[in-house]
Amino acid sequence: MGLQLDTSPGAQRHVSVLRDEAVSALAPIDGGLYIDGTFGAGGYSRAILDMADTKVVGIDRDADAVQGGASLVEDAKGRLTLVQGRFGDLKEIMHELGVECVDGVVLDVGVSSMQLDTADRGFSFRFDGPLDMRMEREGASAADLVNELAEKDLAALIRTFGEERRATQIAKAIVAERVNGRIASTAQLAKICEAVLGRNPDMIHPATRTFQALRIAVNDELGELLRALFSAEEVLAPGGRLAVVSFHSLEDRIVKTFLAERSRTTPNVSRHAPATFAAAPTFIPIIRSATPGDEEMARNPRARSARLRAAERTEAPARGASDPLAYGVPQLSALTQFMARA
To answer: Which CATH number fits domain 121-218+332-341: 3.40.50.300, 1.10.150.170, 2.40.110.10, 3.40.50.1760?
Structure first.
């Protein structure tokens, strides 16, 4: 009998996308140690624990997710450890646990269904709640960005992280509205976006890209993803596997670029750095790109935009962190300065 998850309504709403494919790519073995860097409702962790006599360290920024996994920890009888933290810090987390290397790392990037479905977390325009979006409930919130950033900086944020073509108009409308008072709720912001873009029932909601942009900015999601990839390279043992499921083009571009660069055997040619002799590849691609099948997409709408990439660690030394721009992580100086002051 497999390990049981929390049966609360929030946990049951979250379904791990491409779970079987990602866990199969890890190829769990008896005695192996694996990191589930985005624990969520524990879907990947449970699958890894069920597949072999493994141990798992689950990491999640959200204290609610860690608390919700308590029953799975109990059922796992010492095989599962949960840590509240950022997956970008997974190397440091494992060091604190006295672990030097692991056999696999899986990442399900982005926001969980539990977060989206909880109104007071402010992640979704589907429910009216405080405009928050902070995974750790600390630091600047989405409301802070919406109400305090200059118009041009707000437009750059929405355009860059939301890939919203009409970001300038949306930012202008936000600034005009905040003259009447602080924009504090998800419904307020959604109405502003709808007023600018209109509403077509056959298209995504007009607030989708703006909410995505704010969530990414508030949580530094793209920077965290790249730090997690660098950290995974450091902690994976030779032969260890990395599997990453992403949900939009910005995330996937970072993963694709990282794995392509780390598996390249020809000299590096980048506009951000001079050409260099090729270092020994640190990863060998296993799954260059996989998407959900029709059945999974019909069962779980969240799966529609998902993409899985996976690779195996070689014996070559880790190359360490390098310029985020080279991997497609945008750098907005005004946003960086704002978040540093918050």
So the answer is: 1.10.150.170
CA 152 to chain centre: 26
Please write the tens of the pLDDT for every residue from 95-109. Answer: 999 999 999 999 999
Locate 183 and state its tokens.
């924009």
The H helix count followed by the E strand count for the chain is 16, 9
Interior angle at CA 159, CA 208 and CA 336, nearest 5 = 110
Indicate the DSSP class of residue 87. G
216 Cβ neighbours under 8 A, 6+ residues apart: 161, 162, 222, 250
Looking at the chain, how many residues does it have? 342
185-206 in b/e form (b: 16+ CB < 10 A) is: bbebbbbbbeebbeeeeeeebb
Q: Is the pTM of this model over 0.85?
A: yes
Q: Which residues are annotated as a binding site?
A: 42-44, 60, 87, 108, 115
Q: What does residue 242 show for φ and ψ, rounded to 5 degrees?
A: -120, 130
The C-alpha atoms of residue 337 and residue 342 are separated, in whole angstroms, by 9
Please determine, for residue 115, whether its predicted confidence score (pLDDT) is greater than 70: no
Task: Please tell me the distance from the alpha carbon of residue 306 to that of residue 292, in angstroms, as a whole number.
Answer: 7
Q: Which residues are annotated as a binding site for S-adenosyl-L-methionine?
A: 42-44, 60, 87, 108, 115
For residue 273, give the H/E element and its range.
strand 273-276
Rounded Cα distance, 264 and 256, in Å: 12
Token pair listed for 265: 């055997």
Q: Tell me, what's the pLDDT at 8? A: 39
How far apart are alpha carbons 338 and 274 in whole angstroms?
32
